[in-house]
Amino acid sequence: MLPIHFKDIQAATRACSVLRTLTGYISRGWPPSRKAIVNSEVGQFYDQCGGLMIIQDCIFLGDRLVIPMVFRRRILEELHRGYPGIVRMKMLARSKVFWPKIDKNIEEAVKACENYARAGSSPIKCSPQPWPIPKGPWSHIHVDYAGPVNGFYYFVIVDAYSKWPEIFKTTTITAAKTVEFLLEVFSRYGLCDTIVNDNGPQFISQEFTTFCKTNGIEHFLTAPYHPQLNGQAEKFVDLLKTGLKKVDGNTDEKLRNFLTCYRFTPSYGLGMKTPSELMNSRAMKTRLDLLKPTVATSRSRSQQFNTAAGARLREFQCGTAVYYKFRKSNNTWNWIPTMALRRIGTVNYRVKLSAPDRIVKAHANQLKFRHQSNELFDAFGLYDVSENEVEPTIIPQAQQCDDSNQQGGDHNDLRESSVHEAVRSDSPEVGRNPTTSKSPDAAQLAPRRTTRINAGVLQPAMGSNLKRKGMW
Predict the structure, then answer these.
(1) C-alpha distances out from residue 236 to 243, 444, 465, Å
(2) Residue 172 lies in a domain
(3) Between residues 54 and 378, which one has the greater pLDDT?
(4) Pair (113, 237) in one structural domain
């Protein structure tokens, strides 16, 4: 696409009914109030009336050239070349060009850029959504495998209500071995209602699925590569690995000592009770049973999940265009466009992938909103302007609030929209002088700049992050 030259801006300014009306106000004077301006699009320039000037049939706001409507889309594309981001794109625009609502248009252009969204960072994480607190012990359990540690794997079971752990040491992690461990622990405590685990091959096998259905157990699988949903088991796996390193002795002795300490130690998250008290409804005897634990004020169980300050709940409706954080085979991540099909629970969704063609479960932290490209053009209400269009011919007409332009060739008449609300745009800022040969010189701009300063126009304040050493 060819660049836009100053002559193109001159011709478009003469052809634009809004800028023609604006030129008349600049030359003859402005009304005493905004309400006296019939055309709402012209009224958007009222707050900058003291800084507007006409130079070589073009309108300037200080050093910034006022861009006609037909070229604003191409100017945005030029500003977005190189993907500078929203903040730097605004800084570049404020030194060169101006039109009402330019900051809003820049934000919409960046959000609608698919390449920018693919390479962008993850959105703010959702607020932690805890599992419902079980009514009693051994109703809701979390399972996972830890290891290998010193050549062994450890099958970990954690009760969600009491935090009571069960650990089995093994050298194989097949589905048959997993079912064997569960049958052994069920023989002591009975069947549970719910099992939560990750997407390990032994948990998604047909054998394990059949075992859960046969015993009336509700089986929940977490979203792939999002272990936070199985946080009970994941946290205990970390504690187990750390505990085995701290305790002396052989492997079996280390495991017994670790379980004894964990099961009989009061926990602040359990209201200063031990897992054994909640699991067995009694205080089990130890060598420290003569000591009385310090009575502390217990807090609500729900407060233990309120750990992510500044997080917020993010919801997606069915059919919403989103980006999904997809994991490639080379262990890299990429944001791919997709659509949320339906919601599962509080923070899980079903999304459809095109390559490979399948439907997967995704956590809300793995999704972010996808802004469609046509949202930017709808916001402008623009039509594409061909580079080879002939210069429009101006036909004198009666002055009305809705002036129209006629263009040559095979193009139909296009009537400019005047339905935008008049809003106060950003304060004008003085940037660097244009370097082109046809830019206004300092003598022409000096009186107007002095007028703008006296009118109370402030220079842009430099943020604290720009003052740090080595930032720019």
Answers:
(1) 10, 73, 40
(2) yes
(3) 54
(4) no
Domains in the chain, number = 3
pTM over 0.70? The answer is no
Number of other CB atoms surrounding residue 151 within 10 Å? 8
As a dihedral over the C-alpha atoms of residue 165, residue 169, residue 174, residue 176, rounded to 10 degrees, the angle is -80
Q: Are residues 213 and 325 in the same domain?
A: no
> Is residue 356 domain-resident?
yes
- For 128, 306, 368, the CA distances from 377, given in Å and listed in that order, are 37, 41, 22
Residues 6+ apart with CB under 8 A from 180: none
Strands, DSSP E only, in 50-134? 52-55, 58-61, 64-66, 97-98
How far is residue 195's CA from residue 137's CA, in Å, rounded to a whole number?
13
> What string of DSSP letters covers 5-58?
-HHHHHHHHHH-HHHHHHHHHHHH---SSGGG---HHHHTTGGGGGGEEEETTE
Give percent above pLDDT 90 in the chain.
11
Are 155 and 65 members of one domain? no
CATH code where residue 45 lies: 1.10.340
Euclidean distance between CA atoms 41 and 423, whole angstroms = 10
Q: What does DSSP say about strands 321-327 and 367-369: parallel, antiparallel, or unpaired? A: antiparallel
For residue 192, being part of any structural domain is answered with yes
The helix/strand/coil state of 362 is strand
Q: Which tens digits make up the pLDDT trace of 447-462? A: 554 444 444 444 445 5
Q: Which residues is 354 bridged to in the sheet? A: 357
In this structure, the answer to whether residues 176 and 42 fall within a common structural domain is: no
Asked whether residue 256 falls in the same domain as residue 332, the answer is no
C-alpha distance across the termini of the chain, in Å:
31
Find the angle CA(316)-CA(322)-CA(328) to the nearest 5 degrees.
125
Does 149 lie in the same domain as 271?
A: yes
pLDDT tens, residue by residue, 272-294? 888 988 888 887 887 777 766 55
pLDDT of residue 445: 47
Domain that holds residue 253: 140-286
Q: Give dist(CA 348, CA 364) in Å, integer.
A: 6
Round to whole Å and give the CA distance between 133 and 442: 72
